[in-house]
Specification:
145 residues, alpha+beta, four-stranded antiparallel sheet, 8 strands, 27% strand, elongated
Amino acid sequence: MKKLNSSGILLFELLIVLFIVASILIIPTIYSKKIIKDTATQIFIEELQSGITTNQNYAVLSGKWSSIDISARTNTITFKVMSQEGHYLTHSLELPENITTPSSKQYIFNGGSGNLQSFSTLYFDIDGVRHALIFQLGSGRYRWE
C-alpha cells in the first residue's frame, strides 16, 4: 500500500483556513457600527450636560449672562457668554446624524444667580425615540428623560 504525502497543504485546506479567518475578522466590524453610533450619542449627551453646567456656573461666578442657542435648522447648539465676543467658553456642539431637535430655542442664564430667564422643555429625537431635557422653573436645574 502506498502512503500519501502529508507534508504539503492542499488548495482546498488553504481556502477553508482563509474563509475561517475572514469570517472571524468580518464579524466584529458588523457590530462595531452600532457601538460607534451609541458611543457618539453618549458623548453628545455628556457634552451637552457639561456645556449647560459650565454656562450656568460661569453666570453665577462671574456675574455675566450666558446663553445656549439651539438651532434646528443647522443642527447645532451654541454656548456663549453674552457680553463678550470670542470668549473662551463660546463653542458650538453639532448634533450627531441620529439626533434631531424639532425646534430652535434660546436659554439665558442670569448673571449672578444663574437662574433661567425662560424655561421650557427641549426635545431630542434619538433614533426615532423622543427624549426630553426638562428645565425647572428659575433654578436652571434640569433633568434628562
